[in-house]
Amino acid sequence: MSNKDERKYLIPGLERGLTILMELSRSHREMSFAEIAKRVDIPKATAYRAIQTLEYMGFLRRHPTTGHYSLGVNVLRLGFEYVASLDVVQVGQPVIESLRDATGCSSHIAIRDGQDVIYVARVSAANATVRRVSVGTRLPVHRTSLGRMLLTGLSRAEFEALYPDDELPDAKPGSPDSREALWELVQADRRRGYVVAESYFQFGISSIVYPIYNADGEIEAVVSIMVPVHEIPAEERERLRGHVAEASETISGLLGHQGSASGRNLGQEP
């Protein structure tokens, strides 16, 4: 189909309105009516109707003093609602690939389903010797560092509904054996804002875990790296933690979270 044939199906009014929005969004935060009409190269009467329509619908805002126009709140709302609708795996996969490249460690995204952690995205380090988890792997929430971070988003009532018994199921050495012990661990994790766990679930494997927040400020998932050592070297700990924190911030932002997420406690150690 030729360009001429394609253009005959366009709606002129819609095209002009979108052209005005794109012109304002490029580098001009505010423009007068005359500037808009000149830049989009349409008759003033046509520009006036388009601008009035966009202002009425909340896509343009007119400054009460100068009369200049800028993008309205509905433009921002459309953008935030779009990014908030994106799936955490869809937006997170390229981020954890970059995280793997920066750290040299296998990287993961996981969510919680009841008392299970589910790995929903992963990338392996080139020299990874431990391939314990794959997409779809389920592990007990209370026995994993990822699960502990996911639990930090629960209230006490929600936590007790999830674990109604005082004793935790399938307790293993090194993990909490009671509901209260787990709750205290989770509260420490919540205050810290991240988890560094050394040989917590499997001997010789350490992890660094940060939360991923959605547009409502709720914990949607977690991002982590798996470090194949019993104890993370002190000289490497901050560098690795910084990379995971940055990945957390990036994915949270892509999901529409506007506050400070994983980086808020970057400088604090437990």
Question: What's the short version?
Answer:
With 270 residues, the chain is an alpha+beta fold.
Give the SSE map:
Blueprint: H1 3-7, H2 12-26, H3 33-40, H4 44-56, E1 60-62, E2 69-71, H5 73-85, H6 88-103, E3 106-113, E4 116-123, E5 138-140, H7 145-151, H8 156-162, H9 179-192, E6 195-198, E7 206-213, E8 219-227, H10 234-254
Antiparallel strand pairs: 1-2, 3-4, 3-8, 4-5, 6-7, 7-8
Helix pairs in contact: 2-4, 3-4, 6-10
Description:
The protein has about 270 residues and is α+β, with helices and mostly antiparallel strands. The protein is built from 10 helices and 8 strands. It has helices at about 5, 10-25, 35-40, 45-55, 75-85, 90-105, 145-150, 155-160, 180-190, 235-255; strands spanning about 60, 70, 105-115, 115-125, 140, 195-200, 205-215, 220-225. The strands form 2 sheets. It has a 6-stranded antiparallel beta sheet, with helices on both faces. Strand 7 and strand 8 (about 220-225) form a beta hairpin. Helix 2 (about 10-25) crosses helix 4 and helix 6 (about 90-105) packs antiparallel against helix 10. One of its GO terms (molecular function) is DNA binding. InterPro entries: ArsR-like_HTH, GAF-like_dom_sf, HTH_MetabolicPath_Reg, Tscrpt_reg_IclR_C, Tscrpt_reg_IclR_N, WH-like_DNA-bd_sf, WH_DNA-bd_sf. This is IclR family transcriptional regulator. One of its GO terms (biological process) is negative regulation of DNA-templated transcription.
